[in-house]
Amino acid sequence: MSDDAARGLDALAAAPPPLAPGLSALLEAELGKLAPVATRRPLRQLAILVGVSLVYGAALLGMLTMRQDLAELPMAWLAAAGVAWLFGFLLPAYLALVPQPGTLTPRWPWAAAAAVGSSVAFVVLGRLAHPTGASSLTYGWERFPHGHSCLELGLATAVVPVVAGALFLRGALPVGSRWIAACLGAAGGCLGGLVLHLHCRITDWPHVALIHGSVVGVSAALAAALAPRATDRVLERQ
Amino acid sequence: MAEPKELMARYCDGDAHAFRELYAAVAPRLLGYLMKMARSRALAEDLLQQTFLKVHNARAAYIRGADPVPWIYSIAHRTFIDEARRSKRAIVQSAGDDVPEVAAAITGESVDRADEPRADPELTAAALAALGELPDAQREAVVLTKLDGKSVAEAAAIAGTTVGAMKVRAHRGYEALRKALGRPGAKGAAA
C-alpha cells in the first residue's frame, strides 16, 4: 500500500468516533413503556422444536399406516436409513437454532452447507439403496407422477418444524436469514423423509430418490422463500 | 461502565437506564461506521436511530451472556443495505457531497471536542473521499477491518458473508484505495 493510502487510513482509524445524537422521540416513547421480555434460549427452543415435530410426525404416521412391507425389508437398512433421516432432521435444526456460545446469530455458512448437503445426500442415498420386499410396490417411470402424494405428505410434515423455527428466530437474523430458513426447511424435509420411510412401500429408485429425497430440497427452497418474511419482520423499516 | 452484554441483559429485564448506557457505549462507533458507509451525517444519524429501534423491537432475540455488539452492527449493516436498495438518493446521487462535513464530524471539527486528539483533516478527507469511490461491499470490508479494528471473521459475520469473501473484498478495497490515494492531487481533491 502506498504511504498516502496507509497514512490516510491510519488517520481515519485514529480519529475519535463522532458524537452520537440523542435518542429519537420514537425511541424515548418506547423506553417510556419498556417492559421486561423473555430472552431467547436456543437449546430450550431446540428441545421444543424437536419434541413437537417428532410428536407431530408420529401423529401423522398414526393417522396413516406403517408400510406393509416393513417385515420383509432388511432390518439393517431400515434402521440405518431411519437414523440417517433422523440425523438429517436433528443436525440442521441444531445449526439453524443454536449459535456458537457468546454469539447471537446462528452459523449460517454451516446451515447453508447442511441445507445443500442434505438436499443432495438423500437423493443420492435413495438412488444407491432401495431394497424391495414381496409386498412392496413399484411405480417406475411410467407411474412416476402418481407418487406426488408422497411429496405433499413430506412437505406437510415439514411445516411444523419450519414454522416453529421461524417463530423462535424472529429478530435474531439480521443477516443470513435465507440460509437459516433453508436449513430449517431441510430439517423439516428430513423429518418428512423419515415419515415417508416408515409409511410408503413404493421402492423403485425414481420414487425413493427423486420424490422422497427431493422433499428435503423442495422444503428447503420453500422455507428459504417464505420463512424470512416471519423472521425478518421486526428488522424491517418501522 | 458495565459491559454491553450486562447492559443488554438489564435492558431486557426492563431497565431503560441500561439501554441509555448501551446506546452511549455503542452509538458513537456505530455512527462512525454508518457515516463512512452512507457518506452523509444526516442519513447516518437516521440509520442509527432506525438501527436502535430495530434492536429494541428484536430484543427478545437476545441470548443472555452473548456480546450484543456484533448483532447490533449486523442490524446496522442490514439497515444501511435496505436503505441503499430502497433509495439510492444519498449514496449515488449525491455521492461525495457530504464528504467535508463527514470528515469534519469524524475528526471532531464540527463539534465541541477541542480536548480530544484530532486526525489530520486533509488526509482524513482524502481517505474518506477515496473510500467513497469504492463499491459498498469493498467499502464496508475496509471500514470494518481496517478502520473499526474488527477481525476478518467478525467483519464477515456482521456483513453476512464468508471469511474468504470478506478477505477478497478487503484486499480489493485496499488496492483500489492505494491507487486512488496514490494519484497526484488526491489529497487536494476532497478538500
Structure, explained:
The complex is a heterodimer of chains A (238) and B (191). Chain A has 238 residues and is mostly helical. Chain A contains 10 helices and no strands. In chain A, α4 packs antiparallel against α5. In chain A, 42% of the residues are buried. The model of chain A has no long low-confidence stretch (mean pLDDT 93). Chain B folds into 2 domains: 93 residues, Rna Polymerase Sigma Factor, Chain: A (Orthogonal Bundle); 62 residues, Winged helix-like DNA-binding domain superfamily/Winged helix DNA-binding domain (Arc Repressor Mutant, subunit A). The interface between A and B is large, with 54 and 84 residues.
SSE topology sketch:
The complex is a heterodimer of chains A (238) and B (191).
Chain A: H1 3-14, H2 25-32, H3 42-63, H4 75-97, H5 108-128, H6 148-168, H7 177-199, H8 205-212, H9 214-226, H10 228-231
Chain B: H1 4-12, H2 16-38, H3 41-57, H4 68-86, H5 89-93, H6 99-107, H7 121-132, H8 136-147, H9 152-159, H10 163-182, H11 186-190
